[in-house]
């Protein structure tokens, strides 16, 4: 079993692709068949497998989640109690709960078994820059 940690610096909300870095990890591991587990070590961001061809898809997803869960200072979010870390914090936790903090991707013929337009993304939900850690674990 092989493991590494990727550091993804973010500059605010949005999707940050790391497919190439995960693919490089698989290539270095020189494993033909296995399962890559991807895990983010935070509670206010998440992981997605999403289209990597048209940037409009990423923009629309970000806009959808902003509309679905607005900042806690929005009148529709008056019920939120956890506001100590700012108006984007509890909404970020909700968005992370609605998406995934871990993913599994098969490895076939030494490569990630992603579809033609699929990519791996960190989905940042906080407004301020962060340094996010993603653990890649390759099992046979």
Describe what you observe in this structure.
The mean pLDDT is 96. The chain is an alpha+beta fold. 25% of the residues lie in helices and 38% in strands. The chain has a single domain (2-139), classed as YjbQ-like (Jelly Rolls, Sandwich), CATH 2.60.120. Strand 5 and strand 6 (111-112) form a beta hairpin. The chain has helices at 19-29, 55-68, 89-98; strands at residues 2-10, 14-17, 34-40, 45-51, 102-108, 111-112, 118-124, 130-139. Strands 1-8-3-5-6 form a five-stranded antiparallel sheet, with helices on one face. Strands 2-7-4 form a three-stranded antiparallel sheet, with helices on both faces. It holds the Pfam family YjbQ. Belongs to the UPF0047 family.
Task: Explain the layout of strands and helices.
Layout (H helix, E strand, L loop, with lengths): L1 E9 L3 E4 L1 H11 L4 E7 L4 E7 L3 H14 L20 H10 L3 E7 L2 E2 L5 E7 L5 E10 L1
Antiparallel strand pairs: 1-8, 2-7, 3-5, 3-8, 4-7, 5-6
Protein name: YjbQ family protein
Family: Belongs to the UPF0047 family.
